[in-house]
Amino acid sequence: MTDVPTTTKADWTSDQEVRWCPGCGDYSILTAVQMLMPELNVRREDTVFVSGIGCAARFPYYMNTYGMHGIHGRAPALATGLAMARPELHVWVVGGDGDMLSIGGNHLLHALRRNVNLNILLFNNQIYGLTKGQYSPTSEIGKVTKSTPAGSIDEPFNPVSVAIGAEASFVARTHDMDRQHMMDMFRRAHDFPGASFVEVFQNCNVFNDGAFGAITKKDKRASMLIPLEHGQPIRFGENDEKGVVINPQGSAEVVNVADVGESALLVHDETRQDPSLAFALSRLSAGPFEPTPIGVYRAVERSEYAGEASKQLALAQEQSGPGDLEALLHSRPTWEVS
Amino acid sequence: MTDTVPRTVGTRELNRLVVRFAGDSGDGMQLTGDRFTSASALFGNDLATLPEFPAEIRAPQGTLAGVSAFQVQVSDHNITTPGDAPSVLVAMNPAALRKELAHLEMGGTVIVNQDAFVERNLVKAGYDSDPLEDGSLDNYTLFKVPMTTITKEVCKDLGVKPRDAERSKNFFALGLLSWLYSRPAQPTLDWISAKFKRQQLIADANTAAFKAGMAFGDTAELFDFTYEVKPAALAPGTYTNVNGNTALSWGLVAASQQAKVPLFLGSYPITPASDILHELSQRKNFGVRTLQAEDEIAAVCAALGASFGGHLGITTTSGPGIALKGETIGLAVSLELPLLVINIQRGGPSTGLPTKTESADLMQAMYGRHGESPVPIVAAYSPSQCFFAAIEAARIALKYRTPVILLSDGYLANGSEPWLLPDVSTLPDLTVEFATGPNHTQDDGTEVFWPYLRDPETKARPWAVPGTPGLTHRIGGIEKEDGTGNINYEADNHGYMVKLREERVAHIANDIPPTMLDGDTDDADLLVLGWGSTWGAITSAVMRARAEGRKVAHAHVTHLNPLPRDLGDIVRRFPKVLVPEMNLGQFCRIIRAEFLVDAQSVCKVEGIPFTAAELHSHINGVLDD
Description:
The complex is a heterodimer.
Chain A: H1 25-36, E1 47-51, E2 66-69, H2 75-85, E3 90-96, H3 97-103, H4 105-114, E4 118-124, H5 159-165, E5 170-175, H6 179-191, E6 196-201, H7 213-216, H8 218-224, E7 225-228, E8 235-236, E9 242-246, E10 252-256, H9 257-260, H10 276-282, E11 292-299, H11 305-320, H12 325-329, E12 334-337
Parallel strand pairs in A: 1-2, 1-3, 3-4, 4-6, 5-6, 7-11
Antiparallel strand pairs in A: 5-11, 8-9, 9-10
Chain B: E1 10-14, E2 16-24, H1 29-43, E3 46-52, E4 67-75, E5 88-91, H2 94-100, E6 109-113, H3 119-125, E7 141-145, H4 147-155, H5 162-167, H6 169-180, H7 186-195, H8 200-219, E8 225-229, E9 237-243, H9 244-259, E10 263-267, H10 274-281, E11 289-292, H11 296-308, E12 312-317, H12 319-335, E13 339-345, H13 362-367, E14 377-379, H14 386-400, E15 403-409, H15 410-414, E16 416-420, E17 440-441, E18 447-448, E19 474-476, H16 491-506, E20 516-519, E21 526-531, H17 535-547, E22 552-557, E23 559-561, H18 567-573, E24 576-581, H19 586-595, E25 600-603, H20 612-624
Parallel strand pairs in B: 1-8, 2-5, 5-6, 6-7, 10-11, 10-12, 12-13, 13-15, 14-15, 21-22, 21-24, 24-25
Antiparallel strand pairs in B: 2-4, 3-4, 9-16, 14-23, 17-18, 20-22
Helix pairs in contact in B: 1-6, 1-7, 2-3, 4-6, 4-8, 6-8, 7-8, 9-10, 9-14, 11-12, 17-20
């Protein structure tokens, strides 16, 4: 891959005017992706962004790569076909919480389960933006919106829990206020051979402003974001005074390190086959008002779908030779009429 | 039986024979019919089949709901239908007799498994008295054969469990019919040993039962004659017996080969289309990729994603699946990418009649999307012709960069006929040119790629696949500007693009074959105008009417959108136009709307195809009106 030309952010930026609302968190995510791309040592023409419908789904138009803006919820399915047809491509899927967890929830589950080599970025703003402010499948109970004047009564999804439950191999979480952390997570997603799922906490400053402010504001991060680092005890707080343990009931729990001692803390292992600890971590926070883990929850390599499909094709050709149409038509009993 | 002295039985020649095998879902009637068909095909008869089976895998045993039937017509001449009324009914139990007797021609032959006619089964079938004894079959020629008893007897010493032995009774029936109608035994014996090579006991039981059936016919002194249907004088060449789904699958493989574009199938299992997924999933050495998707929508989306990646994206389904795929087909209309959407139609609405045939999805194919969303439509008209229909649909999709809907139906899908195998060197060249470089020079002299800059002849946009340097571009379902493909919401632009997409599809009429027209093409008093699987029944009915001196022509339409350019002249040329359809007159409505002719509709929506006799009677009715 040494012959990949050097590029800059400008090379990855399309000539289309960006049409998100001023102040939207999507801008910072776009910048993070455009800044990361030159560092990935990939060609623009080998990179494809696929999306569904929603504010986030406009993303492909702004990337100077191949791109497809599809229909609502179906981006993981469109991308699965593309990735199977062309396993050598780098395929990114971008969508919001409505797109990927509501109308397209089924496709997200199956793309993760199959482990298709896709980098799936879910911009979670806990609201419907493009349809102007209805509650979403990640909105908190009691959310008052145009469609829920008395407050929503729906239990929200926790996207990381959903992904882990769907057999995802790579699951991470980041937020739109920390470009470097986003770039690190997106890079890890790109490097991972299989379906990579990254939830991005994203602020919708028009319909759900400040939804994540309690944990992502600069002065809150140290006490409210729990960085997950592979091989390290899980600690956070202004002075690293807090930590995470697994309690006797098997749940993750925030503790004072002074109370339990450092050796009692959970040492994060993103490569652990069994997903139950990663799942426990995903349940640590009931919403963006409690200390919430960010980083890579899980990165466990297993067979990648498109590659396995290609292997079956190669094996069939090895065993039966390349397809012969004449032979196929004569493959069942035949008879001659003269 | 073995001690019975062989006797001499005379042989009578038949021009044609229609046999209907009927039994419980678990009795193996489809298999029995299929083997009888295969042996007849290898013998050189022309034939056509009509499998009919319940939607339930195992409906309650012995009930009318559980009856599975297989009808086959074999002949010494060219035929196009599985026959109007069977002359022979094989009934493996009382329910099969009760349900199927009405199909049998008066005076026909009934061969029953006498062992199944016990009190319990008679009650289940709703008989008050035993029809074998009460005289209700006096108008038929009845043969009572203790098939279960004899089958168990001959399997006794093979070491087969009694239950497995009993399950071989369908091979006894097959053996008896093979003897009675002089079918060659060897193809069946070969098939048994190949099929059950890993289950030797079952192979032995089936072989023993089959041979016992043949021996029974020869020795039981029930039958005075055997019958023979000589090979048909078909066009010279190599034949195979093929059903519509297999022919269609092979057509897709052929299209991929002829286009040198890999085939990608996204599909979700649905009756009666699943066999295409099964067949294509075995064609990996042709570079065929298949995805059994999580749902119908994912199936078509994956196919469209693969098309974006430079493959021939295909999805196969039936009507309910098309309903779910509508939005994605609309996306493909907007993206202007090749996509093949195959609908093996079945009875609707909703779940309807999953295993029964109907052709009532024409309007869905024409208009089943929001907005002005034109899609070319190709319809197959016989089981073997599904091969060519698939190639033609793929040709249009690839050449014109458009989704194409290919219509088949349950009757074509499962029905089989002899197929004169084509010389593969005569198949059309579908080679595709992918975009390789910039196609537009900007005012400042920069060379750029415009994804919606069109070929002046085909009006198709370039197919620029990811991975090609210099051609990075974005496409989407939002309205776009022609040429650049940039998002454009302007009113004038939308009007222009809507008309452009309509014209793009209409324009394909310049590149499709003329309407198939047969019969009294110059001076007919009536034109019978059909599409799809009614072809066989219309062909036979028109032949019968013409044999009576009637002046009738038959036009059959394979391209339903756009319609062939000559169709307007054809429908206006004849005093009367009759349109038989397996729906409530959908194509007839299109013909009336397009051409302002007083076409009359004749409809059948009963889950079974028209018989030639029915259409013959309609033809005479219209002519005498």
